[in-house]
């Protein structure tokens, strides 16, 4: 590279370069809007001044216990004020925040504690039942800090010797926390739920967390002082980075220990909630709420959903209930949402089914993501934008993880060819919007033809008696594989396997129609994902 | 530094690291909203697809002429579509965009061309009168490309051999432009008007431009598809980075060659303008417009102003006219606005004079700026936040320039002690908001333009009758400030104020010419320094 006049005497220095980090967002919010309410939890109201002081106390107390750069602090917390404080206080000490999935079983929790080499565990009393055996099984012996949430009245003993509030009280509210030495430093560790094999530890850095946090502001058109309801678990991809996003715009966190319809409507009405995120199940709760659970909304509310495309009936129900739904997509490896279904104003003129079809697409790259494409994983060439040719969805950019902790083999495989391989199969429409068709391991290959399990599931969903459906490959001597459907029916609905097969035949090509239909409750992971590997075993056994 | 588990096997790679740059914003807007109107100019409507294609054509044509990384491309352009294209096409070729101030005189323009080592000059026909002598005086011989704006019907010949449209036509609309190799690479060069001596070349990098561009979205609460009126010159701090900001939110640029009241009201009414920026003079034009010039606004319009605190009467007039004014502050060295008067909702309850007093404060750091403070430049300690103790306003962070081109001495002085020294004097209020109390003594800000008092003094000195001269700012309702000259004549020499003003007009741009000339003995300190603060008081009293 030739040296130019711009390469001389214009270097980085402390005045013109700072590491990107979401931590400085809180410092700014606390300086500019110290009295604005940062956290609501039950009857608790905490200002930005207090939130910042508590985060600094936490960082200070951790530092006094010898915690510093690159140490892992695990937390087993619901969507409580402590969880928000940990998103700032832990990295302010230089440590890495590992939010444990509160629905996991002791064995996997013990694995996570050991693999992440947790030095500290902050755990909510409610989860003592699983954390006690997890700590017994784990080889590490972290400092255990108990969080006793006044809003939690249920069972559960304390596991450690230090109370969270006492721990904070021992810290300095004016603690001079340090910016990360490098924006590439780890800020958090998120274990994937691992449908097969051990969970993998996804490492986020300060740079990506800061960029995605601001990306949420841009994508979600968050104005100043939004009021955000915590229905999405913060342990999941750091709550899509929203714990940091809120500080950018000095918003108010409304905590919620348990996602219930009445509690959500109450929070929205009482606190003027403007935004919330959640899986499809949250939308179901909202639109299926009884009159007794409902409250009138103070204004239209923005709802960001991911995990599965919102069906037409759900979109209609949400719109009627006063929610504007935006469809996002991403993975733990992409800091949560890195793809957005950017809505075009002229799509409002389409029919409702056409609108639902548009909304079902995952969409386009988030502003801070450099590139999103559907590639042939063999050739690494983009598939044609024809809405039909299947390829693997791949990501590239600053909001892609650093890699999997202590797992160079999986890291290298994930980044082969200069792209992050999502493992999701999809198509690219002529307008560049991508749409998922299946997980690569969930695809069914019958007589050499690829069958998207999602497409078959959608056909089943449209039958009025079907509550849930999952389709997997069943080994077949003649065809290699055939689609096998597992179906949950709605209460008091009845339909036969033959009727469902005939139903599918009306809308699907013959080779895509399930050869077998099994009525059963679908096995799910702790995060609510259907465990297709269990179903595949069941299908084999038929 | 101890190596931790997070320091192993989690390195940067093409899948998880990209250089920050505003250039990818345009690629995204053109991909997601290709048909959205990006540029309006007279009867011209240009989509994002077209804007992106034209920027790529420009980058391609420049590359074909051997222009690449670290080459300077100077432009002498009004707020026209070409100016927007240059903000993308020039850096897409790896080159550095040097936007020349269209109000400068030939000698300074020649200096800029030479100092920046311009390889290419793109110049609007309107400015041929000053660019022709500038090119004659300059040592460099850039490739000259003429831009002949169809909206310009005035005088001015072509200076080069290539027409801008022909140049673009020679480029490839699908040109595979490269991301900057490093986000620290220079994206633009902006010459300060030079308070003492020669102008200094402020160098911006891709990282800072991207961060400030997104910072504008957050600070300005820009939703999707804003309509932005170009009243702020794009040659000034790259239009506060708004040429790049608009692509983040797929907004519409409404171009304007000349800032006139009727044209502004027409644009707002005809195109539904939502946002604009400008110096106090623009606000004066808007509120002093005649009924014939005015049109009803389609909605309330956001107006961002800087350079001087908006007086109460102006704020009242703007509010009545339908504009919501936000007060920003920054310098060329901070990419334009890096400080914002963040308004608190409860200040709406204050009296109008109290509100004006709050609004007059410059405020707090922009979200992407790490730190803003008022320091004692001797001790580098913050002044007490008492609203009274004077110190120097200093900046630190990613939206501070790389430094001054080929000027290591000034660069080091500007960054002494790890802060950028603004040269502006101010106080810090108890709530942390800063307020300027005195511009660095010799700067006069007239109509948003910095005027070096020394430059005007030098012009006066050259008159044979002048013994001594000092020029200070005189407050002016229309222009904010105007230069006021205090002159000592040589013994037995006589000259009138009118003659001296005419004399200055021969060598200075019109806005730099003193509006008042006072003949008096100059007040001096014991060491012989002129006491400009005394003169400022005298100027006020005139």
UniProtKB/TrEMBL annotation, chains A, B:
InterPro entries per record: AMP-bd_C (IPR025110), AMP-bd_C_sf (IPR045851), AMP-binding_CS (IPR020845), AMP-dep_synth/lig_dom (IPR000873), ANL_N_sf (IPR042099)
Keywords for the protein's UniProt record, in alphabetical order: Fatty acid metabolism, Ligase, Lipid metabolism
Keyword Lipid metabolism included in the entry's annotation: yes
Pfam families: AMP-binding, AMP-binding_C
Gene3D superfamilies: 3.30.300.30, N-terminal domain of ligase-like
Keyword Lipid metabolism part of the UniProt annotation: yes
PROSITE patterns: AMP_BINDING (PS00455)
Domain AMP-binding enzyme C-terminal: 455-529
GO MF terms, alphabetically ordered: ligase activity
Superkingdom per UniProt: Bacteria
Domain AMP-dependent synthetase/ligase: start-end pairs: 26-405
PANTHER family: ACYL-ACTIVATING ENZYME, BUTANOATE--COA LIGASE AAE1-RELATED
Family the entry assigns: Belongs to the ATP-dependent AMP-binding enzyme family.
Name this protein carries in UniProt: Long-chain-fatty-acid--CoA ligase
